[in-house]
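Quick one before lunch.
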Amino acid sequence: MKKTIIMICAAGAVLCGCSQKDPQLGKASVDKVVKAMTLEEKAMLVIGTGMQTPDNGANAVVGNSADLVPGAAGSTRAIPRLGIPAIVLADGPAGLRINPTREGDDATYYCTHFPIGTLLASTWNQELVESVGESMGEEVHEYGVDVYLAPAMNIHRNPLNGRNFEYYSEDPVVAGKTAAAYVRGVQKNDVGTSVKHFAYNNQETNRTANDARISPRAQREIYLKGFEIVVKESDPWTIMTSYNKLNGTYTSQRRDLVTTVLRDEWGFKGTVMTDWYGGDDAAAQMHAGNDMIQPGRQSQYEQIIDGVKNGTLDEADLDVCVKRILNLVLRSPRFKGYAFTNKPDLTAHAAVTRQSALEGMVLLENKNATLPIKDAKKVALFGCTSYDFIAGGTGSGNVNRAYTVSLLDGLKNGGFNVDESFKDIYTKYIADETAKALKANEGDPLAAFLPVARPTEYIPSSAQIASAVRNNDIAIITYGRNSGEFLDRTPSDFELSAQEKTLLKNVSDAFHRAGKKVIVVLNVGGVIETASWKNIPDAILLAWQAGQEGGNSVTDILTGKQSPSGKLSMTFPVNLMDHASSANFPMGGDTKVYFTERRVDTGEKDVDYTNYEEGIYVGYRWFDKQNMAVSYPFGYGLSYTTFGYSDPKVSNDGTTITANVTVKNTGSVAGKEVVELYVTAPASSLDKPVKELKAYAKTKALEPGEEQTLTMTFATADLASFDESKSAWVVDAGTYKFLFGASSRDIRGEATAEVAAQETKVNDVLK
Ligand code: BGC
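Model of the beta-D-glucopyranose complex:
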């Protein structure tokens, strides 16, 4: 008996006054606990405890997560009578998002801002992503959070999605493998992840009501494939459904998606939760198998009770959801009574973020080996962003970090002599412009979540530039872009502005006349236009948004401390409209819709609904099909050294394809190389992409002259395309070509293998 009382107390139920006859979670079986629950308790458990925001607090059922970990996005409800503690859910994905300070408490609770998702994917290094995930998970664990609302892995369907920075790639294999590594890393700490947003959340515009109209084939091959990989390869504790609809019905209310595909076909065993305020019918969500509704509102509680009472919701369906939540609670650190310290190793994690960022930066141009910087010591630093570096995007993907290292500080830390005459000019200019921009967001209930407009680029006078040329060895210009949830980017955000172009031209002309070089650093979260200006500077480093140590990481690359080895996980097109998806993507970027609002459906194309007319032709699949020129292809990235490929080989034993290739460092400095394995299928009755990525691998740091044989394996069944007429994955018999690429447009070796026909039927759903 005594033991039981201890468990109740651990569950935070000291004052519960529970009867000792009540079965206790962890002591009695989950079935018994569910049996003992009242309908009201069940309804309470499946909805969260509300959220503290100005407009939504009134809707909260009871309390909120602030009670447990201030700043966490949500929590589940405690039911002390049955020994059920509340557990805490908090954002990612670039690090834990909680409040950095607490009322009446002098301690701080900063978290590490790690590199954004896109940078992590650009490393093409699953081991590295796993180790970054492990560090993130340590902060989750030590700050008393049970489930980390990350990773985010929607496909980069179009460059303008405002949340692409949180996501990984236009390719489902890169997205799936990266997410799986991330989940494995985080969950090593005995905390959960929530893989989001399942699925098709490919635009922010009207995200809470947009109807994504997508063929089952494009869903299965492009938009679901990555989720399938992560479920099968990493066993995430939870999955978060998306806000949008799929073919007319909210994803969280589609039983075919949440139960038939996710659980029955893929074998997902965990808990499913909604995105915050997602969907519009709580009873339908329960029936679909969307176990938990976050953050929870009174009306949803009532819908569930009424549903059971009037027979529209089978209590057995509700019980299944309740059980899955209880199983989640059982695994949680809070249930196990973990004594978190509130003291994660922030110093060690700062080193992790600085180092990991190096592998995801992509060297786009490097004329005459401009980089690494050799003799130049005196740097003229241009571009507002050099002084105001962007660690990551806004919204729930933001992290309350203690600091961000600017490029100015990074260069100084790296021993450069940075021209101080610009520092004051830029600092004052940025402060004035930012104050104006902040005014624009004023009064918006979600101001703290929204991106603040970046200052219009400052253009120094010709006299200022002339003096910079005289006094310095080299020029660096940084351009920045920021975005976040609620809003998509605009076509003008994709282009360089007139001021940015003028700055580039003026600085380049002046420095080049004096025989001095110009480097452009891109501190962006997503794709921008590069074709029209990429030939002007001597080098371009795509630094992405590298987290709180950004300026140090960039400096490490510029100085050659490590050779860049990142490659693009998406295409950089010549023009935005070259993407097939651009014909059906909102270009307005201004139809922000808040959490609980639902826009009145006026049938507006790309806002109320979006037709995914391009089908499977997303990213390089489209550019290859059209044989269209791009600015930088998918998979592209330069290094400070060069690599030779030899002995490409492939074998197929009927179950597994095994591919080998030997990579040799043929240059003069150490470096890592990513090898991409593409497959071209034999002629088929299905329309097939020219080639598709099936696997990839990265070498260790190879010394000059050193070589390594890389082995890549994948299931022969993964050669299949989805045939809607049969509702089956079909592998055609014949000779398959395996292409070993340094990028999708730089194939260095080829091999073939014979493959026998295979067909795997799946449920005819997702219509
Ligand atoms: C976002 C989710 C996030 C949730 C909780 C939503 O607005 O779409 O990604 O996890 O808020 O903060």
